[in-house]
Amino acid sequence: MSPLKIKKGSSKHSAYDLKDPNADYIERHTLACVVTNEAGVLARVIGLFSGRGYNIESLTVAEVDHEGHRSRITIVTVGTPAVITQIKAQLERMVVVHDVHDLTEEGASVERELALFKVAGTGNDRIEALRLAEIFRANVVDSTLESFVFEMTGHSEKIDAFAELMRPLGLIEQARTGVAALSRGAK
């Protein structure tokens, strides 16, 4: 997956990229870090980002090796190529970090996100919400006479599109897991 490039000056960047006035583009990267699963590790990793003014678009964490006490942190962030290189180098220097993979640079990867949407409505809005849910392959996981809760898995862009369509139909709440990602292939 090649990095998503965003023209500098667009609404999809943070103030930190102003540090490099010669950079024309910021890029979206998905980083996968295997860390020691102990108290305070997540705070230290996140502190690296907040302490330097880097933005995190998505963050997921789960233990992946119970016996080895290791967790996987998947971080989606944006920055100039120099900023992304700096983030990776700083993560790799942390003692609690065992591996850092830039899934964006390493080749093809699979990214998915899970979302729940609560949509309240009656009449035609209710019918339209069900019709759109079917098109987007969203599952109804809860239903009352006045609302639905839809569950959807897919790319973040698909979930964003579904949310936009549900807003005028009565979207009242949503919860999202953040991006989970793996590289494709045998390695």
Describe what you observe in this structure:
With 187 residues, this protein is of the alpha+beta class. It has four helices and ten strands; from the N terminus they run E-E-H-E-E-H-E-E-H-E-E-H-E-E. A hairpin with a 4-residue loop joins strand 3 and strand 4 (70-79). It has helices at 41-52, 81-93, 123-135, 156-166, and strands spanning 4-7, 25-36, 56-65, 70-79, 97-102, 109-120, 139-143, 147-154, 171-176, 180-183. The protein starts with a strand and ends with a strand. The protein has two domains: 4-102, Alpha-Beta Plaits (2-Layer Sandwich); 109-183, Alpha-Beta Plaits (2-Layer Sandwich), CATH 3.30.70.1150. Strands 1, 2, 3, 4 and 5 form a five-stranded antiparallel beta sheet that branches. Strands 6, 7, 8, 9 and 10 form a five-stranded antiparallel beta sheet that branches. The radius of gyration is 19 Å and the shape is elongated. One of its GO terms (biological process) is isoleucine biosynthetic process. Pathway: Amino-acid biosynthesis; L-isoleucine biosynthesis; L-isoleucine from 2-oxobutanoate: step 1/4; Amino-acid biosynthesis; L-valine biosynthesis; L-valine from pyruvate: step 1/4. Belongs to the acetolactate synthase small subunit family. Catalyzes the conversion of 2 pyruvate molecules into acetolactate in the first common step of the biosynthetic pathway of the branched-amino acids such as leucine, isoleucine, and valine. InterPro entries: Acetalactate_synth_ssu, Acetolactate_synth/TF_NikR_C, Acetolactate_synth_ssu_C, ACT-like_dom_sf, ACT_dom, AHAS_ACT, AHAS_small-like_ACT.
